[in-house]
Records
---
Amino acid sequence: MLLLLSILDIAAGISLLLRATGIVAQFFIVIHSVKGVWSVITSASNGYYLDILGWLDIATGIVFYMYMHNIFILSSLGYIMLVKGIISLS
């Protein structure tokens, strides 16, 4: 499961750098929003309230949502998602 999530992070990073829109952006909006909210909620239930990686996933979902509405900001977030995915693979 961790391998799949890492691959999704790498794909999201590449898509952010390429400023993907359409069905690709819609897919990553859903995946990263759900993954981020799940991560933040489960971390908070364990007493860890500063889940940086969960908030990063939520931010990725928000940026893809903005891409769908032709607001192209924070494409450098793609580099951060690439690093996150590569680190998660190791």
---
Amino acid sequence: MCFILDRPNQRAKIAKKDIVCWKVIRNNNTSYFYNHKYIYYTLQLKVKLIFNEENDIISEGYHSYINTDMFDTGKIDIDFDSKKTKFLIPKGTRYYESKEYGEYISETIIMIKK
């Protein structure tokens, strides 16, 4: 899964406070793409955000949604084996935001509740 920047040369931000975000994960608390297991209130391993300058995408990082609009409008499908889950991008974390797609990508994340 790739994160598409809103504009060329977009710079990373540093979270000035905890940022609430949302992810769709499997009911057993694993991610869809890498089978990564999330544990409540546990800071996930920090990953390097890998930027591809040729096509303005970031190929590595924790993807999340800015709000629940994507779920509420049906743009993101939640099937019987998945759930929308509240996460935090912790204060001090490097991240990118795409307002066009309603997404974040961050170097770490914390699952806080269903």
---
Amino acid sequence: MTTYYVEIVCRDVNETNSEAVLRTHVDAIASAVFSLDDAAGASFSSDLDERTITFGFMISESGKATALRDGLVLAQTALHAAGAATRGWTDAYEFVSKTARSERELSAV
């Protein structure tokens, strides 16, 4: 098993949401991510100007692809728990980027 830092970035695609509505959504998503059982040590940030949210998870898996999949599942779960429909989560938030770096890669930086 290798531990990976997985970062998932999503963007709110509902351009009609005011900053106040977006801030309320971001607060709900942050609360949801920090209540997930499998997300101990998670990080979360947002950029209201860019309408992005960034999830960070430390995930132990046998490979990067599996760690990325697990990170996406955690991000989707947090979005769903905060009120975005699981089936249509990409209707509310678009996937911007995903990365996974092993602890070895992180220590080399």
